[in-house]
Amino acid sequence: MPYAAYTLIAYIILFTIQESWFSQHKWRQWARILDVDKDGVISADDMEKTNAKLERIRLLINGRDSAPSAEEQTKWWNSHVFRCVPGKDISLEDFMIYLEGLIGNDRPPPERANKFRPIITGFFNFFSTETYRRENLIIGGVDFVKFWAIQADVEEQHCKEMLIKCVPSPVTIASLLGDFVTLVSNNEPWHYNNWRLFAILKQKPKRC
Predict the structure, then answer these.
(1) Residue 60 CA to its chain's centroid (Å)
(2) 87's torsion region: left (phi>0), alpha (psi -120 to 50) or beta?
(3) CATH for the stretch 3-201
(4) Whole-prediction pTM value?
(5) Among 113, 116, 140, 194, which is least packed, fewest CB within 10 Å?
(6) 139, 171 in Cβ contact below 8 A?
């Protein structure tokens, strides 16, 4: 077999491994947002703490008049997080297995995005409505930093640096929703949009 053929095969194998690693790493970033106490398990307590964070974001951006009902909130968690037994704790590893089975690396990015968009949209519905998102109201730098401090305990200085380096202006809740979908659905390491939230979330959260 010609040397060029060996090189091509090696490149394909390496690229496939890189795509898989990238997806796994980004899924873990999403899972860690839901695992508030960072103990490796998404629990009912994490659900309550996350809901409280999302309520703080709702008040920050005034994205909807009131929070979704407790029934609506619980329905989202049971449908998209506590998949095995509604309301029962799930380990990060089991949650990752669920995500891989849901959107896997064998589907093209658009199909993966379509699988995940309803999940992320439901998450964003905790603090904003579709009508609000369609208005494309700009999120200023101060509120952007507060959003990530609330959402994922991101340090202020790191968030400011990433806002300048990686995030295009203007930022809206609709654009953040799109970036979240890209974060968890697109496994192409070279895709520019992939690096926006990835760069913000790759910093280890501060511990209170």
Answers:
(1) 19
(2) left
(3) 1.10.238.10
(4) 0.83
(5) 140
(6) yes
- Two tokens, residue 153: 């305990």
Residue 3 CB neighbour total at 10 angstroms: 7
Q: Which amino acid is at 183?
A: L
Beta bridge partners of 90: 42
Instruction: Say whether pLDDT at 207 is over 60.
Output: no
Domain layout of the chain by residue ranges:
3-201
What's the rounded Cα separation, in Å, for the pair 193 and 178?
9
User: Of the ranges 70-79, 102-111, 177-186, which one carries the lowest mean pLDDT score?
Assistant: 102-111
Residues pairing with 42 in the sheet? 90
Q: What is the dihedral of CA 84, 86, 89, 91, to 10 degrees?
A: 30
Query: Which two tokens mark 73?
Result: 């909130």
Task: Please state the separation of Cα 154 from the chain's center in Å.
Answer: 14
